[in-house]
Amino acid sequence: MPELHFEDKVALIAGGTGALGRAVSAAFAREGARVIVTYRRQPEFDGFASQSKGSAHGVTGVMVDATDAVGVARMIESILANTGALDILVNTIGGYHGDKRIWEEDLASYEQMMSLNLKAGFVLARAVIPVMIRQSRGWMVNVASRAGYGQSPGAALYAASKAGALALFDSLAAELKSYPICVNSVVPSIFDTPANRQAMPAADYASWPKPEEIADVILFLCSQQARIIHGAAIPVYGRT
Q1: Cα–Cα distance for residue pair 203/191, rounded to 1 Å
Q2: Which pLDDT tens digits describe the chain residue by residue (240 residues)?
Q3: Distance between CA atoms of 105 and 164, rounded to whole angstroms?
Q4: CB 96 within 8 A of CB 156
């Protein structure tokens, strides 16, 4: 990877204490960015913060429900008051629900998938884009899923929510063509997390992409070197 410079950047990593979010947050902190992560449970942030003390700036955490528009707006106001800018948004918030056919599903599961995988990205983007327009700079990356391309029997609600996320950020990129703001998605399949290992104990973990590898792709997409990449959905399937 070419040398990347983030010393003058403020990065908001939504879901920054999750399996992928931790790797993304650590990558930006390692490269000198000022990193703010969102989280829902204090022990998750405390554990991550203790691991990241050696980074250039460390990390700051905000406990917020990313689907709550009022809470997110207050968070953005606070970030701007403390840092004066917000250059990067990476949304790693998401959840999986499966193993049921559509006619066996309930509305609660539908609403959960749409909330985690689609609404959170919408609420965050809606709050951050006006800031980036005023600044005349910005980078946004949303984590989608290969399931969003369909053909996901037993995981239709998850697939539908991720398809919506792909369409949402693709449309957002088109709306922002006239602004110096880069909007892209990364599209993983199965990658190496404790939850995935537990769910698939007989799988070959060696073939799964690591969170750190996906984080490096996201880091690049938020760099000056990637400024010509806009409106893309980058596959990070590895050999899965």
Answers
A1: 11
A2: 556 789 999 999 999 999 999 999 999 999 999 999 999 988 888 887 777 665 546 689 999 999 999 999 999 999 999 999 999 999 999 999 888 999 999 999 999 999 999 999 999 999 999 999 999 999 999 999 999 998 899 999 999 999 999 999 999 999 999 999 999 999 999 887 888 888 888 888 888 889 999 999 999 999 999 999 999 999 999 887
A3: 19
A4: no
Chain centroid offset of residue 202 CA = 28
User: Residues with Cβ < 8 Å from 146, sequence gap 6 or more?
Assistant: 187, 188, 189, 235, 237
Name residue 187's amino acid: V
In the block, residue with structure tokens 């792909």: 166
Closest to 91 measured CA to CA, from 181, 12, 172, 173 = 12
Per DSSP, the three-state class of 166 is: helix
Going from N- to C-terminal start, the domains of the chain cover 10-236
The tokens describing 8, both together, are: 């003058």
Backbone angles phi, psi at 121, to 5 degrees: -65, -40
Topology given in CATH for the domain delimited by 10-236: Rossmann fold (3.40.50)
Query: In 3D, which of 164, 189, 173, 158 has the Cα closest to residue 221?
Result: 173
